[in-house]
Design brief:
disordered C terminus; 2 domains; mainly alpha; 17 helices
């Protein structure tokens, strides 16, 4: 069947595409205020003539958008490229640690930003611009702009409230929001700005000035948000692996009768004559119940004397793991609720382990080892 001329044209245009745009849609910066276009160019060290008409500014942004937003890794040094791979839970291929070209090829595989995602992100800056801020910086912004935040001021509440009021806060002072100016960082001190850059391995501009510091933070904020998402994803994956390891170790430490008692307690039907491997398979199938709230906090009363030691050890180890998970979320700024600190939870688990059986000790040790490994990994990524 032959295509009509109109259909052929549509197919050709769709295949061709254009930089930072999707099909017939305009690139997000085409909607920016002229001052935002100039700000973006200045932040990315792209010279532009003054005065310039809007079309010239848009074309300059367009010419530099790909290298600075879509594929910025092409200009990264070897250390930055390796750090990104580590953040993605990967290691540079042996022998390529200092080979920039090889490292770039490896980073490409794990890079997630595309023309479409960048277009969407810069069309909704409020959704990610605050991601890398500390709690105190979020609170200061809310106070400065008279934004009431429900109590208690938890991070998720702060972020939600600031995002909802971002546009109105800018409107009150007649400022732009798509590629925001220095107003966004008015509550930050110069030491705050330098600390933000230092924590991410970014050099402070030299000679340093407040304007240049803000420009550097603003220019790298999108990447910081993407990196935090990657770090959280990696941490969540490590947490899940540790959680599974813990449940496996716990089940392996139980006798057949203990598994049957647990199944009975949780309403899980156990076929008559089930062998140990069948019992373990059945218990693992209902792993969510094992790791959830259905396990009684007072194992002795839940399982009787026969299961008290294993049950108590599980509770202690699970508490330690919950604290560890919360610690990770705190480091990533994603903690959403109260929990015991990792250190105090681990201490409690350790005391319980000391009085537990050898099999229970193995449960705790397995969970703790997984937690420590994942913690060290997250620290490196951060």
């Amino acid at each position: 069947m032959k295509l009509s001329l109109a259909s052929a044209l549509v197919v050709a245009l769709a295949a061709q595409g254009s930089v930072a745009s999707t099909w017939f849609g305009k690139a997000v910066y085409n909607k920016w205020h002229e001052t935002e276009l100039e700000r973006w160019l200045s932040d990315h060290n792209v010279a532009y003539p003054t005065p310039s008409d809007r079309k010239d500014l848009e074309n300059l942004v367009k010419d530099n958008w790909q290298n600075n937003i879509i594929t910025p890794y092409n200009s990264w040094d070897a250390q930055t490229l390796q750090s990104y791979l580590t953040l993605k839970g990967q290691q540079a291929k042996k022998g390529s640690e200092k080979n920039t070209k090889s490292l770039i090829d490896q980073v490409k595989v794990y890079w997630t930003e595309t023309e479409d995602s960048a277009n969407q992100a810069y069309g909704n800056v409020r959704d990610w611009i605050f991601d890398s801020w500390t709690d105190s910086q979020l609170k200061a912004f809310a106070d400065k702009h008279g934004i009431p935040v429900p109590q208690p001021r938890q991070r998720d509440t702060l972020l939600k409230t600031l995002r909802e009021n971002y546009q109105s806060a800018a409107n009150k002072i007649s400022e732009t929001t798509s590629y925001p100016g220095d107003w966004l960082y008015e509550s930050w001190s110069e030491s705050d700005l330098k600390a933000w850059l230092d924590e991410r391995g970014l050099p402070a501009p030299q000679p340093s000035s407040r304007d240049k510091l803000i420009a550097s933070v603003r220019r790298n904020s999108r990447l910081a948000s993407l990196n935090m998402q990657a770090a959280y994803s990696s941490a969540a994956s490590s947490a899940q692996a540790a959680k599974q390891s813990l449940s496996d170790a716990l089940l392996d430490s139980w006798s057949d009768s203990q598994i049957k008692e647990w199944c009975d307690k949780n309403g899980i039907n156990v076929p008559q004559g089930s062998r140990r491997n069948e019992l373990l398979a059945l218990a693992r199938k209902h792993r969510a119940q094992l790791m959830g709230d259905n396990v009684s906090g007072t194992a002795a009363s839940a399982y009787g004397a026969a299961t008290s030691k294993a049950g108590n050890q599980y509770n202690a180890a699970a508490t330690g793991f919950a604290g560890y998970t919360y610690w990770i979320k705190q480091q990533l700024g994603l903690a959403t609720g109260p929990a015991a600190s990792f250190s105090s939870a681990t201490s409690a688990a350790s005391k319980s382990a000391a009085s537990g059986s050898k099999s229970a000790q193995k449960v705790y040790d397995a969970a703790t080892e997984s937690a420590i490994k994942a913690t060290d990994r997250v620290k490196e990524e951060l």
